[in-house]
Amino acid sequence: MGIDASRLQRVPLFAALSDDDRAELAAKMEERHAAPGEHLSNQGGSGYFFFVIEDGVAEVTRDGQVVAKLGPEEFFGEIAIFATPRRTATVTATSPMTLLAMFGADFAKFAAEMPDLAEQMRAAIEARS
Predict the structure, then answer these.
(1) Nearby residues of 118 by Cβ (< 8 Å), 6 or more positions away
(2) What is the mean pLDDT of the chain?
(3) How large a percentage of the chain has pLDDT more than 70?
(4) Beta carbons of 88 and 80 less than 8 angstroms apart
(5) 3-class SS letters over the chain
(6) Total domain count for the chain?
(7) CA-wise closest residue to 102 among 56, 59, 52
């Protein structure tokens, strides 16, 4: 497991982190691929992973209604890790995708140790809730 830390440099969420912090995150991330139509998370389901979209596009639906589209350098899965134990929306790939994924408990640990990252998670949760 682990990806090259340089892949995280262009992701705005990680821009304020030090090179060492990005390297720590990258060591716990894995690359995943999704095909169009694949559900990456399901509303009401358990949320065990945090995802960053490296390439491709996904649609976010809540109660069957499209509420957002996500693309490269955007992320999802944070609400089920930090705010509620269940997914608040369904995320479905609408194109071939490359994602960077991290187990939620690992991501929560990093956020607790990295105040800038924790602050960005709080802001994202507030904006999406």
Answers:
(1) 111, 112
(2) 91
(3) 99
(4) yes
(5) CCCCHHHHCCCHHHCCCCHHHHHHHHHCCEEEEECCCCEEECCCCECCEEEEEEECCEEEEECCEEEEEECCCCEECHHHHHCCCECCCEEEECCCEEEEEEEHHHHHHHHHHCHHHHHHHHHHHHHHC
(6) 1
(7) 52
CATH number, domain with residue 47: 2.60.120.10
Give pTM, 2 decimals.
0.91
Q: Tell me which amino acid residue 103 is.
A: F
Q: How many CB atoms lie within 10 A of CB 18?
A: 11
Is residue 19 one of the residues assigned to a domain?
no
Round to whole Å and give the CA distance between 99 and 91: 13
CA distance 43 to 82: 16
Answer yes or no: is pLDDT of 1 > 80. Answer: no
The single residue listed with the structure tokens 């949320």 is 47
